[in-house]
Sequence to fold (478 residues):
Amino acid sequence: MSYGSRSKGNAVFSSLSASARRRGAARLAAATLVSGLVSGGLLATAGVAAADGAPQSEGGATATLGALKTYGSAVVHDGGKDEQVAAGLFEMSVDNGGTLQTYCIDIHNPAQKEARYHETSWSGTSLNGNRNAGRIRWILGNSYPQVNDLAALAAEAGAKGLTEQDAAAGTQVAIWRYSDGADVDAVDPQAEKLADYLEKHARNLPEPAASLTLDPPAVPGHPGERLGPVTVHTNADSVTVTPPSDAAAGGVKIVDKNGKAITYATDGSRIYFQVPKKAQDGSAELTVQASTTVPVGRAFASETRSQTQILAGSSESTVSATATATWAAKGAIPALSAEKNCAKGGVDITAVNKGGKAFTFELWGAEHTIPAGQTQTVSIPLQEDQPYDFTIKGPGGYRKWFKGVLDCKTESSTGGLRTQTLSGPSPATVGGTATTDTNLAETGSTSATPFIAGTAIALVVIGGAALVLIRKKTPTQD
Fold:
């Protein structure tokens, strides 16, 4: 079935020749290797910072991508060529317990099995600026697996019947039409009817709230003060509050607005770091954790370069968030947090300086100064798909680590196919519920690691030369 109303130019998932696939793999390997070397050259101290703990995240669920579990087949049309792909539900394993079901919202970008993902806001993904993002949320709430009465769903869509595979494929196809502007059809006629129904009836809904966040994630102050407040935002009934591990030695307590020590909190609770008056300059981190279902429609971004996912279903899962306090008797007292800003094409670093002196830091060749007593947001521009990994140091041993990949656009919106499937789907492996590991290449992902590794070896000499040049031209910085 052809969709004349949708521009074929929006879909760039074309059927590729073997030589084109090899060229694509080489480009992917080169981009991965060189960007990694550039990151290492620019940010020489990031490896040291890694020993200090995990990089800052927004909070919520953190999970590992598993196999494509329930899926059917679809055909993507582009420039008169067709490519058959698998379309359906992925499964993710949540850290510390829980399972997530997700659909892909970037059909052209590879998915890397075992890639690490974290819950995030739409503004930090390709959904930013997508006027149809709310329609995707409607589709998720009104189709499989949220609607598991397949007979009723089939009747609503005008289909003769739906299997789980048909329902997953039809739902994914409808999502791709809105997430990527893709000209894509489900192969099975009943799945296609469901996709058409969902596309036609979808309406915009607001972005769902996060499962758990702390706002702000960093606060500064002086010894003897109650630092905060840090406000809890969650859909869980309550969260446990774990004080800093060194609280007993340093005397730091986590308290409520009345100064009473707390071990749990609820949505809207305001919590504080109570720092002793004689405490030496330092910092501390608290963690809040809960068990809840993650809201349908939450985006999940990879910590590496793997296709963005959107949540279709959640078991009871563990979610967590952290907040940091920094204190000093005098001088600059910084508190830093970062957030991807796809509207600006970069990362926004918010710096609060509650000290009596200006706080100055250098990042990527530019110096930034936050005057005493002020809060400023510094935007760090990045290229699409660029990894970043940097640590900012402050007085008294203060360090803040930020790591991620700027993945703000679908491949169709970048004007060309820069990464793609490296092997076509096998008709024998599409259309079913996987009982073994699925070749993720069938959904715009890749299992061509051996080929990429071989290509990368050939690029080591070039990458090494690039690294030397970067180190000569760029001063060492944190």
User: Anything to note?
Assistant: The longest helix spans residues 18-42. The longest strand covers residues 62-78. Confidence is low (pLDDT under 50) at residues 1-52, 413-431, 434-478. The radius of gyration is 24 Å.
